[in-house]
Amino acid sequence: MKITVKLFATLRDFGPKYSEIEIKEGSKLYDVIKHFKIPDDFPLIRLVNGDFANNDYELKDGDIVSLFPPIAGG
Fold first, then answer.
1. What is the pLDDT of residues 4-18, one digit of tens each?
2. Smaller CB count within 10 Å for the chain: N or C?
3. Of 1, 51, 61, 59, which is closest to residue 33 (Cα–Cα)?
4. CATH architecture for the domain at 2-68
């Protein structure tokens, strides 16, 4: 199945800003994070189709995964 992955800000060090990747049925969000070799201890905000998701979210064909570093400002 095919999903779209968007990496924002400093996460672009791990891959392109936008990519479509093929994954196996039953893949979890964690599998995508590992695909891009993002370290386990890297702080992430994870969205799937615009909604917050955790690492064990099971992805579906056509999902859009957006990964952000935490953002702070003042």
1. 999 999 999 999 999
2. C
3. 59
4. Roll (3.10)
The token pair at 50 is 């615009």
Residue found by looking up tokens 């891009």 in the block: 36
For 33-71, how does the pLDDT look when each residue is reduced to its tens digit (9 = 90+)? 999 999 999 999 999 999 999 999 999 999 999 999 987
Give yes or no for a contact between 65 and 38, defined as CB atoms under 8 angstroms apart.
no
Question: What is d(CA 45, CA 71) in angstroms, rounded to the nearest whole number?
Answer: 9
The answer to whether 31 touches 23, Cβ cutoff 8 Å, is: yes
Return the structure tokens found at 71: 């953002």
Spans of all domains in the chain: 2-68
Question: What confidence score (pLDDT) does residue 72 get?
Answer: 67
Residue in 27, 19, 25 with CA at minimum distance from that of residue 57: 27
